[in-house]
Amino acid sequence: MSTPPLISEFFRCMQAGASSADAMLALFTDDAVYVEPFSGVVQTHRGVVAIRAAMSSGWERPLPEMRLTVDRVDLDGATVRAEWTCRSPALPGGAGRGVNVFTLVGGRIARLETTLVGAAP
Q: Domain range holding 26?
């Protein structure tokens, strides 16, 4: 299945890091919700300002030689589920996998929930 342009742009911005911070945040609605596990505990961030703060640590300390690949995309109305692999020598085993579930409203991301699913094969 073809990846929707908004989702492709999200992953392009993730790959680019801090230089694409403004472009990344423009993909979200002002009151978007971001649920993520990256601190070791699942946290919920509400609004673009909170999402920027949550993502800023990754932009300040990016994984070296990080490469993101979208492995699979499933669409169900306004919900997009994207399975991905992140590769970096800093990750255990050199790679990790995850799933992003996007809820789209008006052509923007209203909710993003990220789940880590383990090491990549």
A: 5-119
Chain-centre distance of CA 76, in angstroms?
Answer: 18
Residue 20's domain is classified under what CATH number? Answer: 3.10.450.50
37-70 per-position pLDDT tens digit: 987 899 999 999 999 999 998 888 888 999 999 9
| pTM, to two decimals | 0.93
